[in-house]
Amino acid sequence: MKEKTMNLSNAFKSFLAFCDRWKAVIIPLLIAVAAILPQLGFSTYIIRLMCNILIYTSVGMALNLLVGYTGLVSLGNVAFFCIGAYTSAILTANCGWNFFATLPIVALTASLGGVMVGLPTLRLSGPFLSITALGFAEVIRLIAMNFMSLTNGPLGIRSIPRPNLFGLELNLFNKGFYYALLVLVLLITLFIYLLTNSKYGRALRAIKNDEIAAGLMGIRTGSYKVMAFVICSALSGIVGAFYASMIQYIEPNSFTQDNSILTLSVVVVGGMGTLRGPYLGAIILVLLPELLRGAEGLRFVIYGLALVLMMRFRPQGILGWKSPLPYKLPSPPRDAGKR
Amino acid sequence: MKKIISIIICLALCLTFAAACAGEKPPADDNKGNTPADNNPPADNNPPEDNKDDTNTPPDDGSSKGVVKIGVFVPLTGDRAYQGERTKAAAELAVQDWKDTHGLCGGYEVELAIYDDKNSPEEAASIAEILVSDEDVMGAMGSQSSSTTMSATPVFQEYGLVCLSNTSSHTDYTKTGNYIFRNNCINAQEAEASIEMVQKIIGPKTVGIFYSMNDWGVNVYNYMTEVIPKTGMTIGAAEPVADNTDDFGTTIANFRAAGCEVIFVAATPDISSPFINQYRALDSEVQFSGFINSYDEQLITLTGKNCEGMLVPATWFNWSELDQRQYDFTKEYYDYYGEEPTSLAVQAYDCVGMMLDAIDHVGKDRAAIRDYIESIEYDGVQCVLTFNETRDASKTFAWAKVENGKFVQVDRSQYE
């Protein structure tokens, strides 16, 4: 049994190594498949599912920068998503702005939210940071609930327009919305790729591995952490704007903690700190509940069980990377006890 | 070699994008369009014109021509599941009754397509996509709250499928478009009925408003703050409450400090019951008045004697001595589901009945079903249903009161 598991594990490793070797071919091929998929005559329901996958991939990618690369586990990502959705909805539905014109404002307001969480939590990490972010998300939801004159409170904002590009409305029927999301997710992926392979990305990884050591090496950990929050929040806000435009009706209960947990699960299931992880995480976590619709009441029990089993057998995430070397504490000097 | 392959794939990708954009024609109108033609639904959703003629006449041998489905999307899991189960039971009963009395519907077998939306707007929108994509679905009913339903209505409107809600009371609900109908009273109507009932039966000077922080509660509250001052009553205090609250000590203290004689309780029984129990423990004199969702035996079960004397406007009355049909339906529903029907369950039964009646008359044609329902005069179990220009069904209210652990009808003529 153990041998079989080992064989399976080795085969999976070989597959990942093969993918790595041929990524220059595989990546364009996958993008081509993603571009062709909507043209295969799927129903709008399937197109919507694909849009949901792209939305959660994008927001997972943003959160991955914080959780996977910087080691800051945030349970409040829905706050930025909510800020982005409301900013765009108010500007498009109430003020008549074009959707794409709202995106810079969306990024700005959401990143302000990022600063508001990032600055006071500079010295926090682990569960303390998670709880603070969780509280911030609840504060944002309550503001959306009670600031009636701006957000329309529990009545929500309806008839949110779809994106309009030079007179062409991008909706699910003409698949324009799907392509807009595909471009968004590719841009975010490229951005994160460039960022994580720069000096900035190496600094974030250093902070994740050992914040004190990073500080001693001259990295200004505080400003890097705040910047990670700002980038994550701005990207999440932009994805939130797309979400509002797809759903066309938002109210405060659209942005509960479930959303934060789902996004974090996307990152963890796929594999933290990898570019490919959020893609697979989003595909699994969006499709699984839909595939299990037939199971009715047991649907979310099976869903939860699948996650628990995944965490048991592959804690680093399905496509996550874990050092094959066992971690050993450096042995103390031989004369340590004598001094 | 790898570079050459990747360049070829990238070129193929660019060509695909170009072909995709050139091949797609956008809808003629936006999703807020008010005419079915303008919404440009997918071609496969519109059967050819001549289809209308033969759908009405069942085959001579009595066999079915296929299947028609009514979509039902309600919460079957989560904290609103108990309400969704009632709607589901009412819909199943309506289909069963139709089969017993008519057999086929316009020559088709009738089926329900039931989905659990968890009372989640995102789920409801996804389910709406499933329903509009299924060519056999000729109408939809749902969900439990206006906010959930309203995330699905743009989809129904965009693809031209009738959505008939038995629960939505949000004023803007039917404004999504002409495929969206409501078989429920709007917030203002039930608020007006509750105010009139309290004013005529009790006539208090100071009242309080206890309302849920959701679209329904806030709409009711907004309407009441406009109307109550004109009736001569004063609003002593108004207290919002978030879902899942179970300690109302501060809220009750505020109502008592303001000297409220009657409390309008705009919340579902799961929230209003602990509030009533805690209030009654401190004050035996205060009176409560509810809204149509308070006409629910669950409220009496959860509060016991504490809700004695509570006034409730009802669009439906169980075990009616005045209407044999209502009495019979109550018995039938009780035998089927094990509890008395609420107003919302009765409305669900009538919604499905209306859609089946429309299919029976015009066949498997979504646009024709919409037109038929718009001008329908349907003899429902609740009342004779017609829709006004905003596609809202007309409703009348009976007055009910909790007496000796059950709802009894109040004779309105005594107070006119």
Core attributes:
heterodimer, A: 339 residues, mainly alpha, two-stranded antiparallel sheet, 14 helices, 68% helix, globular, B: 416 residues, alpha/beta, Rossmann fold, 2 domains, five-stranded parallel beta sheet, four-stranded parallel beta sheet, 14 strands
Percentage of β-strand residues of chain B: 15-25%
What is the overall shape of chain B?
globular
User: CA-to-CA gap between the ends of chain A?
Assistant: 51 Å
Oligomer: heterodimer
Number of self-contained structural domains of chain B: 2
> What gyration radius of chain A follows from the Cα positions, in whole Å?
21 Å
Q: What is the radius of gyration of chain B computed over CA atoms, rounded to a whole number of angstroms?
A: 24 Å
Name the CATH architecture of the largest domain in chain B: 3-Layer(aba) Sandwich
The largest β sheet of chain B comes out as: 5 strands, parallel
Main sheet attributes: strand count, strand direction, barrel closure of chain A: 2 strands, antiparallel
What is the terminal separation of chain B in angstroms?
91 Å
Class from helix and strand fractions of chain B: alpha/beta
Largest interface: A-B, 51 and 53 residues
**Low-confidence region ranges of chain B:** 15-57
Describe the protein in words:
The complex is a heterodimer of chains A (339) and B (416). With 339 residues, chain A is mostly helical. Chain A has a domain at 42-257. Chain A contains 14 helices and 2 strands, in the order αααααααββααααααα. Chain A has helices at residues 2-21, 23-36, 44-69, 77-94, 99-118, 126-146, 148-151, 176-196, 199-209, 211-216, 221-247, 257-270, 277-291, 299-313, and strands spanning 164-165, 168-169. Chain A is globular. The termini of chain A are far apart. Chain B is of the alpha/beta class and 416 residues long. Chain B has 2 domains: 67-185 and 323-385, Rossmann fold; 188-314 and 399-415, Response regulator (Rossmann fold), CATH 3.40.50. Chain B has 14 helices and 14 strands. Chain B has helices at residues 2-23, 36-39, 51-55, 81-102, 121-133, 146-159, 187-201, 215-227, 249-257, 269-282, 297-303, 324-337, 343-362, 366-374; strands spanning 67-74, 109-116, 137-142, 163-165, 180-182, 206-212, 234-241, 262-266, 287-289, 311-314, 378-379, 384-385, 398-403, 406-410. In chain B, the strands form 4 sheets. Chain B has a 5-stranded parallel beta sheet with strand order 2-1-3-4-5, sandwiched between helices. A 4-stranded parallel beta sheet of chain B has the order 7-6-8-9, sandwiched between helices. In chain B, strands 10-13-14 form a 3-stranded antiparallel beta sheet. In chain B, α5 packs parallel to α6 (146-159), α7 crosses α8 (215-227) and α13 (343-362) crosses α14 (366-374). Chain B is globular. Residues 15-57 of chain B have low confidence and may be disordered. At the A-B interface, α2, α3 and β2 of A face α1, α5, α6 and α8 of B.
